[in-house]
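Input.
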Amino acid sequence: MKQIKKLQLDELKQIYKAHIREDFPRNERRPYSSMEKMTNEGKYVSYGYHDDDQLLAYACYILTEGSMYALLDYFAVIPELRGHGTGSEFLQKLEGELPAQNGVFIETECPDAAKTDVEVTLRRRRIHFYLSNGAVLTNTKCLLFGVDYNILYIGRSGIDLPAEQLHCAVQDLYREIYRPFYGRLCKPYVSNENQCP
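Output.
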């Protein structure tokens, strides 16, 4: 029977070693010690999607102060199960589990910053996956540690926020998460130059 399970630190560590290190490039991986520290502080939460004891997929989120928003830190389906609807099924079910009151922000690498046609196709496929599962593409992007990201948003049912409010929420979220690097290695931006306090 398929079910979502909130992961304990030992389970997260096992997934980090067995999957996250394989599924994500080095420049997109945070150290496990950072995930552990944030989990202990109540700022990080992880879920596994299981069929009995078999792991199908996993998701990790960074929570903002007061849990108004979350940032999807990692989301992946086990390689041999990709392309069969498992990711969509998991993402839809997560909405009822996550303690984010307003919604979730998602980073996806910008296709126009890709170096090869293969990368462009892969990045567009990721964006399409989230869009087909209820996300909207915001007008905010973020240059984060040298990687250019589009920011998508999945709002809670019935909560429709204007673009300016979403942009300000993204700025606040990144300022909270990357305080020492904000403005230098973490630069949220938008083409129409929204200004937030």
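The longest helix spans residues 9-23.
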